[in-house]
Amino acid sequence: MYRYNAGMNSLSQRLGIFGGTFDPIHFGHLALARALRETFALPQVRLIPTGLPPHRDAPPVSPQQRFELVQLALAGEPGLVADDREIRRSGYCYTIDTLAEIQRENPQAVLVWLIGGDSFLNLQTWRRWRELLDAGHMVVAARPGFDFSALPSDLAEEFAVRTVLASPGTAEKGRISVLPTPLLPFSSTEIRARIARGEDVAALTPVADAIHRAGFYR
Ligand code: ATP
Q1: ipTM more than 0.90?
Q2: Which of 11, 66, 125, 153 has the maximum number of C-beta atoms within 10 A of its C-beta?
Q3: Hey, what CATH class is 14-185 in?
Q4: CB distance 64 to 50 below 8 Å
Q5: How would you write the pLDDT of the chain (218 residues) with one tens digit per residue?
Q6: For ligand 1, what atom is nearest to the CA of residue 142?
Q7: How far is the CA of 8 from the centre of ligand 1 (A)?
């Protein structure tokens, strides 16, 4: 049973977290990270490329290379920072462990962490998913083709009880909000497929030139 716990929650004590494979980072990721920062008035949002993703096969571009592309994409983006903790870790990375580690480093902070609608629909397959709901303030980004009304019943129940409007004042642990952004029709899968077909991806990712120079995804 969920119990609401009002705690200290000053603006400067919030930290934005956005984990993903970023294989490669695209304009959708950037727009979401910016919207997260602005919507919740966060001093910083950390983008954390995953090392070995638990839900996918190992990607062909190395974790270090994906991380460097994220760094490049964030150059000149105020308040958006690439965090390499997961690519430095050996073995699988679970979100619950990463959030716990960041919480230990920032004991006063409310972690405001972003997850895409497609990932959210599968949340019950994630490690210790109920604890994950209490680990911070979870922010769900709607995604084209994914419908929240299709949530499995346990998750739908949690979503109904925990959801608040997205705003700086409501970003509390154990609550969920939906990021108020337009649907963003970008995906890394599509970028990889287009590059494999020899097509230009400059409209989809800010790091198209770097990808092209390195010969990734061909
Ligand atoms: P892939 O196509 O390889 O699965 P992706 O485009 O989903 O990649 P990820 O790095 O896996 O990119 O995404 C990181 C997080 O961002 C995930 O939670 C994902 O759901 C979310 N996300 C990515 N793109 C979008 C988008 N266009 N709209 C909403 N959420 C997104």
Answers
A1: yes
A2: 66
A3: alpha beta
A4: no
A5: 444 444 444 555 899 999 999 999 999 999 999 999 999 999 999 999 998 755 566 567 999 999 999 999 999 999 999 999 999 987 778 999 999 999 999 999 999 999 999 999 999 999 999 999 999 999 999 999 998 888 999 999 999 999 999 999 999 999 999 999 999 999 999 999 999 999 999 999 999 999 999 999 99
A6: 29
A7: 31
